[in-house]
Amino acid sequence: MCGIASIFAYNRDVPPVDRDELVRIREAMSARGPDGAGLWLSEDRRIGLAHRRLSIIDLTDSGAQPMAIEDGRYRIVFNGEIYNYRALRRELEAAGRRFRSTSDTEVLLHLYAKHGPEMVHLLRGMFAFAIWDDLKKGLFLARDHFGIKPLYIHDDGKTFRCASQVKALLAGKGFEQKAEPAGHVGFFLWGSVPEPYTLYQDVFALPAGHTMWVDDNGPRAPQRYFDVAEELAQTADQPPPGKPIREVLRDALQDSVQHHLIADVPVGVFLSAGIDSGTLTALASEQTDYINAVTLGFTEYTGSQRDEVPLAQALASRYGCKHHISHISRQDFDEALPRILADMDQPSIDGVNTWFVARAAAQAGLKVALSGLGGDELLGGYPGFRQIPRLVSCARVPSLLPGIGKAFRVVSAPFLKRMTSPKYAGLFEYGGSYGGAYLLRRSLFMPWELPEILDPDLVREGWETLQPVLRMDDMVDHLPTAHAKISALELTHYMRNTLLRDSDWAGMAHSLEIRTPLVDVEVFRALAPYMAKPEDLPSKRDMALAPGKPLPDTVINRPKTGFSIPVQDWVEETGRSERTRGLRGWAMRVVYESFASPVLRKRRKHILALARLYEIESDTPHK
Fold first, then answer.
1. At the topology level of CATH, where does 230-379+495-556 sit?
2. CA dihedral 433, 434, 440, 441 (to 10 degrees)
């Protein structure tokens, strides 16, 4: 796990790469890689690569980056882990290739030298990398299937920049910062900024499952090599394997955990009282003699049903873990808040829990920890898997009547906003399709509320760019089952834009690599055929029974609470003193205190006054 950066002055009419800018970008990511720093510039200084290293595989200097092979033709900076690199290396060695290190980074270079851009189809892991081809004078970029690892790009028509963090690109001070309407509108819609946008104009995420090529003619359009919805559609007509579903699930999970334990440093696990983290802990204990488990406890939950510590202790004892418990209080939250906001790379209303558990893991001496993120998205653990189909069924007919939905919203919104969630006003306007119903389920603000917060012209431009309901409907309408539709939406929206992104910045803030065995392309492909046939789909109970020593009934039958933190209570209390309340007020505070956003700051007084109206929204759960 690392921080990567590159600057490519592809237009010969502009000055060469500014070494100081590249160093500023790299050093803004020092927490991502405290174990080493690397820098390379070409002789003509048209291209530069920079790297901050967190040593996980091959701890020697031979694993340092930027790394080169083929007499310097290919040179790479890489962030992430390739879990099948050992098998790929054996194949490459059998084909005559020779290695100088034991790193997965060098495997990527040899794969690219042999297969070119098609090499991404061979990879299993989380990754974002840039490879310079000195013969073709071009830069090849790639990002993993689900978007676990970030990669942000900026192009001004003459110089191309990329880095692992938005704030790192901004720290380089190589371009003017302007507000991006789609990023601002997207944040207040969802509570996180939807890919590929950021808060800043011309700063984009390379989309998950995409590659890009940049040469003297500038950047080409990103090329897709993996798409969640298309994968689900392609498996719809395939018969499931002949093996019982529990056996398929067990084999897929065991295989994924085995691959995610590969490291030259100890690997721990985030352990709550839930099925996802408990299953990972149980499976990991089968494959290693020693596993560190890290659990958060909260003083506000002590003695209540939401206190996860007692059950987590029982699980740690059952599976022979060394257990690390970190108790967090409201005072800890208040003291840590300035750093949390500073560490946050893009605004998010979530991620505080991940920041604290990552800190606890780092304090326990860990560099790597497994997270149970992804189980709910695959196996239907969220209430939305049940609620959204019912909503679509009930609202479909009224939503087809011209103007009815909008008329109901216009008339009812002012009253509903003061009595209950304003989302009820949008039931008939949005509830009749899966994309619209998902917006109702996950949104922080509703579209018609945004002109109260942002400039109306900015809202109009941002909404027209995003077109979220139309795009979501286009993505899932052809999928055969409700489960497949909702799973595709959760995997590509809430998980990608909130949970995975929060895991990256919150883990990297403490130099901790967070791995997600349930967000794995092979696990996804093993389960995809069953998503089109819900009667055969495995359940969370099946997951709990997958280990050789299954999870106890006390965990399996425990009411779901999520891996949560009492941040809503803390935010509400903070809000009383600042005249803002709830997640909506929290969202505003996050933007104001952590991100340079001139468009929002012009309306600060107006927005803070409006924030007093907003109560806590339970629709947006904390993972």
1. Rossmann fold (3.40.50)
2. 150
